[in-house]
Specification:
Blueprint (H helix, E strand, L loop, with lengths): L12 E2 L3 E4 L6 H9 L1 H4 L11 H15 L7 E6 L4 E12 L4 E8 L8 H15 L4 E7 L3 H9 L3 E11 L5 E10 L2
Parallel strand pairs: 5-6
Antiparallel strand pairs: 1-2, 2-3, 3-4, 4-5, 6-8, 7-8
């Protein structure tokens, strides 16, 4: 059997409280705030150090805008509709069309935590990815990042195990990560 993912790219997805959409140049300040927050950076090692809002502007202009042209690129700004403000980000970190698998990563401005926003957004992204043909959505988190593992449980993912020394912290030390997934029914 020949399975294909019906790639859409980063299309707009609307939920009750959120608009998920491509990151825009007008989001540069919000993106900068996100990626320079100490709580966010504690769990995100793979992003470069942002030295000012111009770093976010350059990233959006020179990298993201080009990547959004690809139908197999998925990277959403999480926009709180009531404030019309980017408060987080949900991305497909890696994907495998043959295995019909996508790996999600997300982060949220700490001011907006514990309100269910990221759970609402991740559920919507999972539904979209299942609709276009993915059959397994997975995510991993540093074992110390209880907030992310709570989100994983709330969106219906199941714990699959702990991956020892799976990824690097910003100081290049390795950490253990929990792997979770959800399967299309």
């Amino acid at each position: 059997m020949n399975y294909e993912i019906n790639h859409t790219g980063t299309v707009e997805i609307e939920t009750d409280r959120l608009l998920l959409r491509p990151i825009l140049l007008s989001d540069a300040q919000s993106l900068y705030q996100l990626v320079t927050d100490k709580e966010v950076l504690n769990y995100l090692a793979g992003i470069p150090e942002y030295t000012g809002v111009e770093t976010a502007v350059n990233y959006i202009q020179n990298i993201l805008i080009k990547q959004y042209l690809n139908k197999d690129f998925y990277d959403w700004a999480v926009v709180l509709k009531s404030e019309n403000k980017m408060i987080g980000r949900i991305s497909v970190y890696k994907k495998d069309d043959y295995r019909r698998m996508a790996d999600l990563v997300w982060y949220l401005n700490p001011t907006y935590r514990n309100k269910g926003y990221i759970t609402e957004g991740v559920k919507a992204v999972i539904n979209h990815l299942f609709t276009i043909g993915f059959e397994r959505i997975e995510a991993f988190a540093n074992i110390e990042n209880r907030a992310s593992t709570k989100v994983m449980a709330k969106v219906g993912m199941q714990y699959e195990g702990t991956l020892r020394k799976y990824d690097c912290r910003r100081d290049d030390s390795l950490y253990d990560a929990e792997m979770w997934s959800i399967i299309k029914e």
